[in-house]
Amino acid sequence: MKAAKRTKLEANGWKIGSADEFLNLSPEESVYIELKLSLSKSLKQRRSKENLSQVEFAKLVKTSQSRVAKMEAGDPSVSIDLLVKSLIALGASPKDLANAIS
Amino acid sequence: MKAAKRTKLEANGWKIGSADEFLNLSPEESVYIELKLSLSKSLKQRRSKENLSQVEFAKLVKTSQSRVAKMEAGDPSVSIDLLVKSLIALGASPKDLANAIS
DNA sequence: TGCATATATGTCATATATGACATATGATCT
DNA sequence: AGATCATATGTCATATATGACATATATGCA
Questions:
Q1: Cβ A35–B93 below 8 Å, yes or no?
Q2: In chain B, is it the N or the C terminus that has fewer CB atoms within a 10 Å radius of its CB?
């Protein structure tokens, strides 16, 4: 539950330094989580820019509002696959994705 | 089985134009598959550069040789998550990943 | 030829991600 | 206060990804 806990903290604004400051994450875990958070953030930005509510967006990508909320929170239960597919559905190109994570 | 079929073709060098030339993939599907293929390719490159066999690499990331082969083939049964985790295990940074897909 | 070593492919039991639901929290109104 | 809308959180049945195994297909070398 380490990663899960930290993700929560991050999402709620508890982040102070970067990544592995808080719990004892391996560098690999840190990179992975940072990546997911980058995508989450990008997703939220894009959805907001499109003036879509989570409910509307959920309908668009055929999922539920609750899952959208979890995507944007970087919840451990959501895969990078889902984040990427959702971003693509919002029109993101490979370059957009590259920018989001770099 | 559309995407699966096409991935096979691509991986075997049948690719002529780009992405959606072959089967009737939606633009979103195309982007998703291209992304996976980029990561697959990058993974194979990195592993080769490290002079690791699939068996050795499999041990390193705690999976099996067969799964490694599937990762590198862009098999539909492998997730972006797994590809990303594997790349990170080989030392790839977020920037490296960004470069790989852009 | 036979014998390694490397990679590919098919299948399957189990682990994990998924959508959906209920419900909670929060913000903004009248 | 209550009402409405947006977002968050917890849980669960089912779908999908996973590692592992067997086996196939190279490729090189004695």
A1: no
A2: N
A21 domain-assigned: no
The per-residue pLDDT for range B78-101, each reduced to its tens digit, is 999 999 999 999 999 999 999 999
From the alpha carbon of B62, which nucleotide's C1' atom is closest? D19
Q: Tokens in use for B90?
A: 């080989």
Q: Which nucleotides of D are covered by protein (CB under 7 A)?
A: 5-11, 17-22
B18 lies in a domain? no
In chain A the first and final C-alpha atoms are separated, in Å, by 27
> Rounded distance, CA A89 to CA A64, Å?
15
Element (H, E) at B15: none
CATH of the domain at A66: 1.10.260.40
pLDDT of residue A22: 56
| Strand C lies under 7 A from the Cβ of residue B73 | yes
**Sorting pLDDT into bands at 50, 70 and 90, what band is B12?**
very low
pLDDT per position as a tens digit, A23-65: 678 999 999 999 999 999 999 999 999 999 999 999 999 999 9
CB contact under 8 A, A98 and B94: no
Residue whose entry in the numeric block shows the structure tokens 């409910």: A55
